Structure formats: C-alpha cells, structure tokens
Amino acid sequence: MITTQLPTPGRGPRSEHPRAVGADAPHTPLRPMWCCRADGQPWPCAQARLLLRVEYDGNPIGLSIYLAGLMYEAMRDLYRLNPHDGPEPKALFERFVAWGPRRRPHPEQTP
C-alpha cells in the first residue's frame, strides 16, 4: 500500500505567539493582555522602559507619540477583554505615557 511509504507527519511549525519566557524572550508586549513576554509584568515593564529610552535617545517627541499610540491600542484591547471592569484611563496614562520624556511647564502655569 502507498500509505506505508509516506513519512509520518510532524507536529507542524511552532507557534510564534506566545514566545517562551526566559532570558531570550524580548521585553515586548504580549497582546491583548499587555503583559511583558519576558517577565510577565504589566507592559511596559522597567526593562522595556529602559530599552525604549535608549532606542529613542535624542527623540523625546517620537517616544511620546509612540507611547501615546500604544496606550490607545492597549486601551482598546483591554476594554475588549473586560468591558465592565477595565483599567481606568488615568492608570493607563501613567503606565504608558507619564513615565516618558518630561515636558516643560507651560509659561502661563509657572508661578
């Protein structure tokens, strides 16, 4: 019979998502939960923040825009996962944007 000559099928290609946790895992978000692939902390974790600061060194405006966009995507994903008990907008702002580049105070706001 011909079927005995065919090789046994393998398990197929390995899934890329989620990636294994460990030393080789990057500090990138695991969506839609927005936790870090490497350490399981809410993303951006401390290591991801350091890496983003280095990557956007000299481009604080670009970092702010990037973080604001990610905040929007996280907000959408997290509210879809749990629409009745999602995170507060203030908490998401502090998590994604507030730690980023410092802004100069508006001249009218200085005492």
Automatic annotation (TrEMBL):
Spans annotated as Disordered: 1-25
Top-rank taxon: Bacteria
Protein's UniProt name: Flavin reductase
Species this chain originates from: Micromonospora zingiberis
